[in-house]
Amino acid sequence: MAPDRRVGRGGRAPVVRVSGSWFLLTGLIVIGYGGYLHQRLPWLGARAYLAALAFAVLLGLSVLVHELAHAGAARAFGWQVREIRLTLMGGHTAFDAAREAPGRSALVSLAGPAANLVLALLGAILLRSLEPGGLPRLVVELVTTANLLVGAFNLLPGLPLDGGHAVAALIWRISGSRRAGVRTAAVLGGLVAAALVARLLLPGRVPGVTELAVTVLLVLFLLDGARRAVLAQRTRDRLAPLRAGDLARPLRVLDPRDPVSRALRLREEDPAFVLVIAAGAEALGVVDVQALGRVAEAGAVSTPVEAVLRRAPFGPAVAADLAGEELVRTAQELPGGWWPVTGLPAPAILAEEDVRRAVTAALAAGSRSRGA
Fold this sequence. Notes:
Elements: E1 5-8, E2 15-18, H1 20-40, H2 47-76, E3 80-87, E4 90-96, H3 102-127, H4 135-154, H5 162-175, H6 178-200, H7 209-239, H8 244-247, E5 249-254, H9 260-269, E6 274-279, E7 282-287, H10 289-294, E8 309-311, E9 318-319, H11 324-333, E10 338-342, E11 348-351, H12 352-371
Parallel strand pairs: 2-3, 5-6, 9-10
Antiparallel strand pairs: 1-2, 3-4, 5-11, 6-7, 7-8, 10-11
Helix pairs in contact: 1-2, 2-3, 2-4, 3-4, 3-5, 5-6, 6-7, 11-12
């Protein structure tokens, strides 16, 4: 598979990546649709392929506007937009939703189709000023129709379409269960796929090769997208119980000049203690438990804990109520591997290895319960 091409990032704008499959789609449009226009409108001559190329480029820009609308709505709610990706099946905007809520989720989902419908309206207005029969009018007609179809299709109430995400958010809001919303919208996505197949089987219809191929691609897209949405929700459910405050270890701070005997005494008091060695406000590292065990008992009083120091990357503090997907995402993105935890009655610290271990256990437990 050809690597994605990064085509731009301006200021606060998200990264835009174009998949190799998008260029394949552009080529297919130029060849296939250009040939169709040449056959149906012979007066165009070679310009039929030029019209098909213009249509492909403007269609790509329409998809980009669709995804930028998603990104703009997400950023309006304070969500971090990571990238926009254009592929054979259209586009996808990846973002990290902070404190996601049903209403916000629905608005972000509907922003994309709304942008396409606005483009279709602008195209209809522009058509009034273009002379019939000309190449510019033909291209504008094609793009206007495409935006109308893309906007309307994405509003269908089934995952992974934007309308499906809006339905999932609505059911989430009414029932209080995000899982119920996703599952219902996934079933509706399957029904939309079934309707597309049924359309081909209507009495008297003989679908052409192009229509058949497009329908197969759309059906596979819908079924795979619905399946992925259900799997993502299942993962979200498994990670939901994880909480920074529950995973944090109790913390004790030692001065580099403190004797090893004090560290040993604290370890005997509670083996879960993370013993941080700090000089003033600067954390230097943690006590190396293995090195601590190698210190002779006779030298424990005279040996400073600095001798058993293990350098550790400390990062910024995190809140004790940080949980679920947001906790995992934060652990992946924050610098350092040890983070002080705020909001607890006693000093505590969260270790990256503890988060990783808890995530692995949660996902494994979910797999076992499903297979049982």
